[in-house]
Here is the input.
Amino acid sequence: MARTVRTERQGPVLHIELDSPATGNAVTSAMLDELLAVLAVPDPAVRVIVLSGAGRDFCLGGDRDELFAGLDQDPTGGGIRNYGEKARRVCDALTNSSAVTVARVQGRATGAGFALALACDLRVGADNAVFRLPELALGLPVAWGGLLPRLLHEVGAARVREIILTSRPVGAVEARELAILQRVVPEQDLDGAVAEWVRPVTRRPEAALRVTKTLLASHAAATRLADASVLDSELMASVLAAAHYTRGLAAQPPAH
Here is the structure.
């Protein structure tokens, strides 16, 4: 099976690239396994992790074909639960990493792509970056990788409610205003903007940086009170399994 994640180590900086441009870097179960293999066993010598996507778009979301194929194999949604748990572990690993995590976003960051970017500490986007949560329009809950509590914490409930219920796109300028992005630059300047963050971070004392990251993560978690995102995989599996069952009933010939 072809690899869908490419990594490159440059001293204390680890570059992780979603590398399936032909699919818009759609997040498959195999891609999550590859990300977990890199993130679940952190290297203490890595001070910064840069997450990017190959091609025109950062990430167009989860691979829906794979999810529905999994329902054909297990209509109870067991495969989706497994996929959802992996997604949560990946996003938690990005958020809780002792390294500073940087999302480098160009083009579209949709659904799961939005979640992966938001799980990072620092987020820079090209001026063509567009964020969108189309889940409700697709008949899905916003339940991927703990996205919802992170988004509520970073952006605020009123704005998040409107973005989710309308499923509308959020362009780069608005994303910066909402703190989804902290910086917006022309696409050709993305690497330079990332470097401007990386240089000072790699010069910080290692112990102070690690403790500061832990404090920031702890205070953010405290504001969430009860974090219902632990149920993300269960919610996704239940909704998709119900929809799959309903479609199956509709496809059956009428009883005589």
